């Protein structure tokens, strides 16, 4: 049983619950039907592998106080995640683990490093790159907005997951997700390390995260709302084209993204109300690009983490240098929004801009 190839255009094996959700969708066009059969074929042994993994590599509970990287999609969370993951005191899920949560404990890490560009930008990723645990949650059958990558036509039906109130009760596959996190920590072999998690989806899950991790801390990264909007208009169709069983409707995407921007403003306000400045730091991407090492060190100090030693500083410098070319890359040309959404979009963008201004004032490093 070998680790999944990073080059594959399909996710790794999917849980039966997720395949059932896919089969419940409206009939897929010809290429979509073929891709669904590929997903089903790859997932035939999902239950068996997960059961075997549990027997051979029991998972310990995840630590009680992870550090979370938060913010909207395309706000710079990956850059911040990589800076933090460079520090020896953290353990974070890796791409090869997240893409195969039912087998990674059986296969072990890939023997060779494959590097490729992400489909939506110039960031390169490798099998060992820090990765969103959201992909593991998705594959395990949990309620994730990334289901829309697989069936883009149901994006609007998934949009209620942007509302924090949707996460007040336990949800399907929550136990499987926690087990995945515990296995990631156990596989690292250093139980003193702190779990570092990154997923923009977590930004909307405050009640669920508080229930599981009452002592968690977070770093929220802000970005110009208009840039977030524009970048997401590219992200979602790109991922749907890569993984999806059907095309994505642009009008539906516009409606979803307006709602996403508005919900991000509410979520940021909610996090700032719930966590004091010593448990939540707010940074701006624009500042982080200019001084990544200094701001990362300051943020960790505010959260009472141990200051980086000489090795940690060297790792942080290397992580920042590795993304120097991306930090200076310009955004591509702007995309227009449907005229009927212009007013709603403007209102949502202003709400997010105001929420970010307040958050930086109350929880920024200068606060």
The residue fraction in helices comes out at: 40-55%
User: SS-based structural class?
Assistant: alpha/beta
Low-confidence blocks of residues: 1-8
- What fraction strand? 5-15%
CATH class of the domain at 64-92 and 140-363: Alpha Beta
**DSSP summary, beta strand count:** 7
CATH superfamily of the domain at 64-92 and 140-363: P-loop containing nucleotide triphosphate hydrolases
**CATH architecture grouping of the domain at 64-92 and 140-363:** 3-Layer(aba) Sandwich
Topology:
Blueprint: H1 16-23, H2 30-42, H3 46-56, E1 67-70, H4 77-85, E2 90-91, H5 95-98, H6 104-107, E3 115-117, E4 124-126, H7 134-139, H8 147-150, H9 155-158, H10 174-188, E5 194-198, H11 206-212, E6 217-222, H12 225-243, H13 250-274, E7 280-284, H14 285-290, H15 292-302, H16 310-322, H17 324-327, H18 342-363
Parallel strand pairs: 1-5, 1-6, 2-5, 6-7
Antiparallel strand pairs: 3-4
What are the main properties of this structure?
single chain; about 375 residues; alpha/beta; Rossmann fold; 5-stranded parallel sheet; two-stranded antiparallel sheet; disordered N terminus
Brief description of this entry?
With about 375 residues, the protein is of the alpha/beta class. Helices cover about 50% and strands about 10% of the residues.
Please, could you describe this protein's structure?
A hairpin with a 6-residue loop joins strand 3 (115-117) and strand 4. It is built from 18 helices and seven strands. Helix content is 50%, strand content 8%. Residues 1-8 have low confidence and may be disordered. The longest helix is centred in the last third of the chain and has 25 residues, at 250-274. By secondary structure, the protein is of the alpha/beta class. It has helices spanning 16-23, 30-42, 46-56, 77-85, 95-98, 104-107, 134-139, 147-150, 155-158, 174-188, 206-212, 225-243, 250-274, 285-290, 292-302, 310-322, 324-327, 342-363, and strands spanning 67-70, 90-91, 115-117, 124-126, 194-198, 217-222, 280-284. Helix 12 (225-243) packs across helix 13 (250-274) and helix 13 runs parallel beside helix 18. The termini are far apart. It has a domain at 64-92 and 140-363: P-loop containing nucleotide triphosphate hydrolases (Rossmann fold, 3-Layer(aba) Sandwich), CATH 3.40.50.300. The strands form two sheets. A five-stranded parallel beta sheet has the order 2-5-1-6-7, with helices on both faces.
């Amino acid at each position: 049983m070998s680790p999944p190839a990073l080059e594959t255009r399909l996710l790794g094996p999917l849980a039966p619950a997720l395949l059932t959700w896919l089969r419940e969708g409206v009939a897929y066009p010809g290429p979509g039907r073929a891709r669904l059969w590929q997903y089903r074929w790859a997932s035939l042994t999902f239950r068996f592998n997960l059961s075997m993994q549990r027997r051979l590599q029991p998972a310990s509970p995840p630590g009680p106080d992870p550090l979370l990287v938060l913010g909207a999609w395309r706000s710079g969370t990956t850059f911040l995640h990589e800076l933090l993951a460079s520090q020896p005191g953290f353990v974070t899920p890796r791409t090869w683990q997240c893409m195969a949560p039912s087998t990674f404990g059986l296969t072990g890490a890939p023997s060779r490093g494959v590097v490729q560009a992400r489909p939506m930008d110039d960031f390169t990723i490798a099998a060992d790159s820090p990765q969103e645990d959201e992909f593991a949650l998705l594959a395990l059958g949990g309620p994730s907005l990334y289901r829309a990558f697989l069936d883009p036509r149901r994006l609007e039906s998934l949009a209620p997951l942007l509302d924090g109130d949707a996460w007040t009760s336990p949800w399907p596959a929550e136990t499987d997700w926690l087990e995945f996190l515990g296995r990631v920590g156990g596989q690292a072999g250093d139980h003193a390390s702190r779990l570092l998690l990154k997923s923009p989806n977590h930004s909307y899950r405050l009640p669920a995260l508080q229930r599981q991790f009452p002592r968690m801390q977070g770093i929220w990264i802000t970005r110009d709302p208009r840039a977030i909007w524009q970048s997401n208009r590219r992200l979602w169709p790109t991922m749907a084209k890569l993984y999806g069983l059907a095309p994505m409707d642009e009008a539906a995407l516009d409606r979803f993204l307006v709602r996403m921007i508005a919900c991000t403003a509410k979520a940021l306000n909610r996090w700032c109300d719930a966590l004091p400045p010593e448990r939540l730091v707010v940074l701006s991407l624009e500042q982080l690009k200019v001084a990544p090492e200094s701001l990362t060190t300051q943020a960790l100090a505010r959260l009472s983490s141990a200051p980086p030693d000489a090795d940690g500083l060297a790792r942080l410098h290397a992580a920042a240098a590795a993304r120097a070319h991306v930090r200076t890359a310009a955004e591509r040309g702007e995309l227009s929004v449907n005229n009927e959404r212009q007013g709603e979009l403007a209102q949502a963008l202003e709400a997010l801009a105001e929420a970010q201004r307040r958050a930086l004032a109350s929880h920024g490093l200068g606060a």
